[in-house]
Specification:
Layout: E1 16-18, E2 24-26, H1 30-49, H2 55-75, H3 89-104, E3 113-114, H4 119-143, H5 149-171, E4 177-178
Antiparallel strand pairs: 1-2, 3-4
Helix pairs in contact: 1-2, 1-4, 3-5, 4-5
Length: about 180
């Protein structure tokens, strides 16, 4: 368990930060961009939770927030460390099952969706977009090595999960806002 008794350490004042194994890297490294994007996605989900009353949706999002901390630990731990916390295929499979179950409740898409449909849905769309950025950052960091396939797969499914959940939350609010190609010409 993590125990923090002092919040500032001054060890990052020179532009470096520590990884789980104690090694130090630049705060500008692609890996740190990925970790930051995952953290931002987690924060965006926290804001979305302020606008979602459905308890089942809330519990799902709280579990995802915890998994995003697991993801951060995974990517902050260099490969080859025994007993490291890693994203597991079962977490991806659960996201897929949930996507399928939620999507079965929705009408098929007739167009692309504009972010909106109510406050909860709009915030979930924002979280989804941030997860997509986190995925791009993870791909860039993975190109330098040390990131396994499961974190990449997890964030890819998570963005799909948040999209479908946003549609489900919108259904209880204002409904999907559909893109109307060329409507303002």
């Amino acid at each position: 368990m993590v125990r923090l008794t002092k919040i500032y350490t001054r060890t990052g004042d020179g532009g470096e930060t520590g990884l789980v194994d104690g090694s130090r890297i630049s705060k500008a490294a692609p890996l740190m961009a990925a970790i930051g994007d995952v953290d931002e996605a987690n924060s965006a989900i926290g804001v979305a939770l302020l606008h979602i009353d459905d308890e089942a949706h809330r519990q799902t999002l709280l579990r995802i927030q915890n998994e995003l901390f697991d993801l951060g630990a995974d990517i902050a731990t260099p490969a080859g460390i025994e007993g490291a916390l890693r994203i597991q295929p079962g977490q991806v499979e659960r996201l897929e099952r949930e996507i399928d179950a939620m999507n079965a409740e929705l009408e098929p898409l007739r167009s692309f969706i504009l972010p909106g449909g109510g406050a909860g849905s709009a915030h979930l769309h924002l979280a989804r977009a941030i997860v997509r950025r986190a995925e791009r950052s993870l791909v860039a960091a993975a190109a330098e090595g040390g990131i396994g396939a499961d974190p990449l797969i997890y964030v890819n499914r998570l963005s799909d999960h948040l999209f479908v959940l946003a549609r489900l939350v919108a259904r209880a609010g204002q409904g999907d806002l559909l893109w109307r190609p060329g409507a303002t010409r």
